[in-house]
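Hi Y.,

Following your request, here is the sequence exactly as I used it, all 625 residues.
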Amino acid sequence: AGNAGCAVPAASFRRRMAEAPVSESAAAPSLRSILALCKAREWQGPLGLLQTEEEALSSCVAHNALISATGKRLLWEVALRLFQHIASHHLIPDIVSYNSAIDACGRGEEWQRALLLFHDTGAAGLEPNLRTCNTAIAAVEGHWQRALALCHEMTVIHISQDAITLNALIASCRCAGEWQMALHVLQHLRSSTALEPTVVSYGAAIGACEKAAKWREAICLLCSLKGECLECNTVVCNATMAACGKAAQWQHALCLLEELVQEQMEVSIVTYGTAISASGRAQEWEMALLLLDALLSTPGLGANVITYNAAISACGGASQWSRALCLLEEIGRRRLQSTIISFNAAASACELAARWQVAFALLQAAADLQLRRDITSFNTVISTCEKSAEWVQALALFVLASGVRLLPDVVTYGAAISACEKAGEWERALVLLRLLTTQRLQANIITYNAAISSCEKGRRWPQALALLSEALGKGLPADVMSCNAALGALENASCWELALELLGNVPDWTLRPTILTYNAVISACKNVGHWSAVFALLAELPSVGLRPNDASLNAALDASAQARRWAESLRLVAAAEEGNLALDALAYQAALVACSGTHRFGACLLLLKRLRSFTCRILPPDGFH
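Below is the corresponding structure, written out as tokens. Let me know if you'd prefer a different format.
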């Protein structure tokens, strides 16, 4: 399948370049203007091959040198112009011409053009060599299946792979996050009798593990690298630390940093930044700040804005908003240039602490510094308003984002809907949800949950059920929060039959109900006096791996009072006390009603004593007479 996806019909390169043309700005320059550009930039290497411009016009070797020089400087369009110039002046491009042009396209991330060139070699009567194949594989970096297809094609045309070939394939797997395939290729390289892995091989494989947060595999590869007596470098160690950081294994990341120092290897700003990020992901903000101080005190090193951003994010993850602001101010004091990422990270710290005024001020400060605010900037402040129950401010920011020509995304809508949900503004929440769909955005289950919850608070059970049905109809995976919110709406409306029906559907959605799920149904049944259903649901809890909590028992005691089931009331009170659950005064009162209605005066006296004990616990010593 991979080989088929890579195949391109053999045709002239010029025709296919017409189908994927070079931009107009690159098509205009003549060879003489390109030579002038080379002279102006002092590319003496290729120019040394040229005696005159006329010689350049008639020399394929000179063209090749210029293609290589322009390609290495990421001027792929100029390189292709030179390549096209060869054929248009009755020169015959050789395999070196193709190799240089493929390399130029690869460096410019124009992998489709690189593949067109690779497959055009056959139409030009040339046989690709090892360099041609390796350069093409490197060019399709990130498209690992195409890289794998090219490796297969090498075997078809009888070109032996070398370590560079397999390193390029591993690098392609790294870019695509295909860590398992990367390890498979590395193992193939290690088991080869003709080839040997290099530090580049291990570095690419560790990079693939880092992208997938496979920290154990990354550490094992680092150990294998050292075990094969290969010279480890800082880049490989940084990638291993990053893998640990993404998995919140900050202790392992710090151990690697300590090893680097002990082995007197070069420790860079990136190394410290990686360790700070690892600490931040584990909410170890104090360690992140200690690492930042260590970086600042290391001779020859100094923190950059990326390092500070990582430290600000570490403080933000632990709701240390004031420290995050101090770090943001320190960026300016050290004459570093803050970025919008700096302000977004500081605003995120305010979000978790519900400091919406400070977050809003940061948004304005970013604008005053003429930083280009992105949708993440607004999303963060809207979420801060949501957590602060400031729904009016949240909607104002939602409108402001559109006013500065930013397109709200699903996160923007979700935060605004959640803000409305917390305020019980169910109608506005539904308007936002409908607006989201008109903007060709795909609402996720989190967005639907917020809308359903807003209907629950607004006591709009038909709308809540309709939204749940709509989410399921769109193929969204309903979670237990969706179910609980819909059941809460039914509970508020005492729709016990629908609540029981919905609870029965939970196993069909492969969901595991929580005690909150059952409590909502128990309460709905209790509200209409359906006490037999209450006791049945309570008895069902152990079979689904749940234990009743205080809310469950309070509702059940209320039902037992209605049914005058005094023995059940006493059993529930005893179960609550054994489980250290907190019954409220109304629960004891309900148990007293159940017992008094059947003239169980001994039980009533016992309950009165427990009620007195309960009251003494919640009132001051002189508050009960």
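The chain has a mean pLDDT of 83.

Thanks again,
Q.
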